[in-house]
Amino acid sequence: MQKEFRIVDKEKNIVCISTLDERYYGEEVRDPVTGLPVITWVPSITFITNSYPKGIQYMRWLADKGYDKAEEIKTEAGDRGTIVHHAIEKLMTDGVLKMDDKIMDREGIAREMTPDEYYCAMTFLQWYEANGKPKPLAIEKTVRSKQYGYAGTLDYIFDLNDKKILLDIKTSKNIYPNHKLQLSALRQACREEGIEIDTIAILQVGYTLNKTQHYKFTEVEDRFDLFLSIKAVWMAEHGGDKPLQRDYPLSLSLNREGPAKKVKKQ
User: Fold this and answer.
1) I need a surface site. Which of 78, 114, 208, 249 has the fewest CB within 10 A?
2) 224 burial class (0-12, 13-18, 19+ CB within 10 angstroms)?
């Protein structure tokens, strides 16, 4: 079953819930009247920016591949991106990443990296060392904008040359407008939490279009104004929605008293 429910900030009582293509962040607060704990939900930045128009190039690609094949390709790309993110996170937190390390995929299953996934981590290390091994100030940090009602998880904040850089890791060969809007929204949420970001940027790893270095660092223009416009579109489509919540039994049973009897063929 494609779902995800995880604690992203234990101290702040923030959890993230994903069902199918919808993602929300929940925060446990106390009801001012009853004093009982309740969860308030806000949409994720990714969920909101998915409302950005895909563009004619994407529509042509979708028509060429067909819907089912396109979804299969996107799923494979998402799995690859998850493994690469977790591998780089392990490298940054543990200080070492081995070729045969088991890394968690999107389903929470630990598996060995493919050569391509491992190479993406290698190219991140190339960028890291080429820039004097900048100090990580935050890794996979969840931030929430109470002013505008959304939340998201950033990849990294680095101290690079006395400037705070909000860095997003991508394995794709292209940078799309929704990627830039995600960073703009994360920057605003950081600001509300007292973290002033000097630069927002995207680091494409495993970027083989470069001949000498297989990564690409791109500074991004802050377009929080455009993000708010897209959020207005999202509100028109999903403003009244809540996370899909259903009660499921942990197992299914036929409640037989004994083993099923075989029926003899006549």
Assistant:
1) 249
2) middle
